[in-house]
Amino acid sequence: MKTLKDFNFKNKKALIRVDFNVPLNDKLEVTDATRIQAAKSTIIDVLEQEGSCILMSHLGRPKGFQDAFSLRHIVEKATDILGVKVKFVADCVGDKVEEAVANLESGEVLLLENLRFYEEEKKGDVAFAEKLSKLGDVYVNDAFGTAHRAHASTTIIAQFFAENKCFGNLLAREIESIDKVLNNSERPVLAILGGAKVSSKITVIENILDKVDHLIIGGGMSFTFIKAQGGKIGNSICEDDKMDLALDILKQAKEKGVEVHIPIDVIAADDFSNDANTQTLDINAIPDGWEGVDAGPKSRENFDAVANKCKTILWNGPLGVFEMESFAGGTIALGNSIDKATKNGAFSLVGGGDSVAAVKQFGFAEKVSYVSTGGGAMLEMLEGKNLPGIEAILK
């Protein structure tokens, strides 16, 4: 696996695919700069070797050239974070881009315009990828969030760099962290899968059953398992058409010696609202008119005990409707449990949109071993799929 360490960037132009797809408010100001911060290490490493950086990214889902999706809106924030003035060119291919690149000196950073202003980017167009490739001496992919897409700038472009291509620091760390959980983990290994639907995690569960010792199933998806086993779940979310699958997963887990832990009690509400009436109930006995919205106190204790006897922990999905303050307790308790386990030497990896949002919201991002930046890409790796953006560098 080639990384930045395999290259000398002195007087070289590094063409870096970053993921600067950051959220903007109505004033087109960056509201969460995590992804820019995540790319800083790679960019600074190149600059410190007296190289220069040409940054490529997409932003949102524009239809043609739309100013609201222009990467010029993030230049000021990127300059602040990197501590280096970020130059900008209002296109990503063509004469004015080639001129800006030619004038780029060692130690400088140039940000290209939104790649997705061109349909060729998402189509994986070879000619478009070749135009982009002419802008740099070394291609660096540091965009894990798009590594599962065979787009021009994430995959197709790599063929034009022969040996002069590598992973950036962020993408290398992502690969190493997920590989550590799936293939090189210290046992016992715990996977925590939450969120609303079993259907979105089926392939993940099937792929990791051979690699884990404990599996916690929480959040809305737990009710499909409870109902499948004959429990009464009231008005709780449930995928009735996945109940046979839930039973099959439990059977597979038993055959493989994996201990499955499902909540035994829940906080139930009489309305999907922060101000709803609530009560703590056995998860098998939720009356009609009530729905489970968070893990109960006994479940939190059980999960804490499991987390703190494991040496490798993967967390993907919350235990309740954490967006509502009244129903965030189970997810916060789990975060505290993983924090404690990590302090005691466990390796903890958190990934997936909702999980990442939760760890940031409740201050756990610095308390776990690694927080993945790519939701869809991480899920596909956990499913055992090869990601085209990664395969293109390894060829």
Describe the structure.
With 395 residues, this protein is an alpha/beta fold. The protein is built from 14 helices and 17 strands. It has helices at residues 34-48, 75-82, 95-102, 119-123, 126-133, 169-182, 202-208, 222-228, 243-255, 297-307, 329-343, 353-361, 375-382, 388-394, and strands spanning 13-17, 52-56, 86-89, 109-112, 138-141, 165-167, 189-193, 214-217, 232-233, 259-261, 265-269, 278-282, 285-286, 291-295, 312-316, 347-350, 370-371. The strands form four sheets. Strands 3-4-2-1-5-6 form a six-stranded parallel β-sheet, with helices on both faces. Strands 10-8-7-15-16-17 form a six-stranded parallel β-sheet, sandwiched between helices. It has a three-stranded antiparallel β-sheet with strand order 12-11-14. Strand 1 (13-17), helix 1 (34-48) and strand 2 form a beta-alpha-beta unit. Helix 1 packs across helix 2, helix 8 (222-228) packs across helix 9 (243-255) and helix 10 packs parallel to helix 11. The longest helix has 15 residues, at 34-48. The protein is elongated. The relative contact order is 0.12.
